[in-house]
Amino acid sequence: MCLIEVKNSPKPVVACTINAKSFFENSGTIYTNSLLVKKARENILEFLLLNHPLDCPVCDQGGDCDLQDQALFFGFLKKRFYNFKRVVTDKNLGPVVKTVMTRCIHCTRCVRFATEIAGVEDLGMFGRGLHSEIGTYVEKVFQSELSGNIIDLCPVGALTVKSYPFVGRNWELKIAYSSDYSDGFGLPIQLFLKNNKIVKILPGLLKHRVITNWISDKARFAFDSMFSPLKQLTPVSLQSFKQQIETTWDQLFERVTKIFYFQDHLTKHARSMYNLVVTFTNCLNLETLGLLTMLTNQFPFITLRTLETSFDNIDINSTHLLTNQIIDKHFNNVTLCFLIGLNTRFEGSSLNLKLRQRYLQGNFFIYSINSLIDYTFPIKYWGLNFDTLKKISEGIHPFCKHFVNRISSVIYNSDLFKRKDAHSLNLILNTFKTKVHNVRRSNLSLNTLNTSINTAGINYINKFKTLEVSDLKYFTGLYLMSPQFKSLTQLLNLKLLNYFELPHRFSKILLKARYGFSEENVSRQLNILKSLSTYVNLPTKTVFETRNTIFNTEGFFKINKSVLLTKTNAESDWSIVRNILQVLTNISHITESTIFNLNLPETFQSFIDYCHFMFYAIIKFYNYSLNLHKPFDYFLTLTKFKIKKTKFYKTNIKLWLDDFYLHGNDFFSQYSITMIKCSKMLRSDLTNFVLFN
Question: Domain 4Fe-4S Mo/W bis-MGD-type, which positions (predicted)?
């Protein structure tokens, strides 16, 4: 439709493929809305509609179709072709994308996206003339974590959503805005609602980025797990001595209040202390964590424990955040990127897209210490364990010369600090950074990619201890907030080892927050845990039904509002803790703004002009001293003290995420039907064994 008329030209010219400067020098006159241009556009549209089916009433793209709009403004009202239309066989691109290839107009947008953006050259056009088709050459699926984006790119109804066909038109849907909870970036998304239900999710707008927002399939299709029909049938239940009793929130709060008063009295007058252990994951929002911190300060018998290993040092930004060198436009100046134990394609798809775009610009080298992984761009490997990293920090590896001659950036996964030698790893990275600075006199950027949505926010509030066996030897209650299947499996193992033994005169209570997705597998794991004297099941709201604040891995605050109304008897984590705190402390009014109110804009980053004076309290490095260079940055200098030996394991780096669709740190994707189908497709393509149904 970009045909124009040029003076002294025998025919219309395609504007997007011809240099305009040459035409201005020769003729100097261009017509964009002349009679010749209008007739040419009518002929083009008539040609596009030659084999296009007339099924707009049953097409999912109806009302949002570019071909419909252009036919309305530029089309011809009469039809002059009466031959049979061409029929094209539909292609199987996987459990996400539905194809109706008779509607395809061969714009090749999906082919260009697969080749240029996703880096998976599975789609292409084969055949010539009337026999041209878009497909996968051979019978295979479109295997990419970004495959759902081609649905938005298709101008017609050839590529639509396979999971939810015929659900509604655009004029029937309401738009709300939220964040993606599947990874640590929290990218903005658009929620399309109908009858208080999410119909589809599309990418949102990025204010602080130059690149386009491409969301993953997990962010786009995993929302079906949050709205299981079992959510409508699960009330607030209390199981005592193997008898399940339905109760109300008021009765439950009254019971919990009595337990708190009883435990507080025992703590003040008894010698031994039996704690109430409150566990949470890195997906917990900042408002709820602020209330829990107030509760623990008020009552010493309440202990906060995280189910994930915390960082060794949280006083520096680079230990749990991506620095400005990766986020800002300065990334175009980086010429070398060093990845340590990181699969950016699955753990941070937006970062992987940024690395690929920088590679396509040229003068960019990527090295990795990891297993062989398809990053969608060429990469050179330097080993499988940290022995290579140790040699690089000592300056005896051939790779060291590349850091001296180039502007470098090091990116590693936050899950590396779950290793037992995490402290040694931190020292090696900081020593390496200092030596590069002493040689080149430039700052080597150390970056941490968090795989959970609020890991950085939790580490900014405080350094919480990890749940250990000693915490469960003497406890009177266990409160699981946002539990995950792997954390419940860990508790099951502790139960089998008889770590839940207590004197019979103390009651043991287990409170578990239950979200709206299906939890049959979790319930099976909790059957043994229900041998506790009291088991309380708390139906909890989903993330789209509550207002929450998170702090993503880039250092940006994300404030998300409630977009869905709750029709069930579910409460948010913040409301549950707030009600308990109001009863116990006699606080008449608590709002989210009074608990967590930093008055920060959305793009506030790194607490500008705020210095951490706790640098001087970290003298436990023994062989290093800290010199303040600028806020939130430091350089290590060698001292005259003796070097303390630390354990360092030369074991291979383990990739914690072997299944992108089911094994993330989010708490809902593993229960999604669409994600289960995608995982089955992924496993059937990558395994050497036959998948039996």
Answer: 173-230
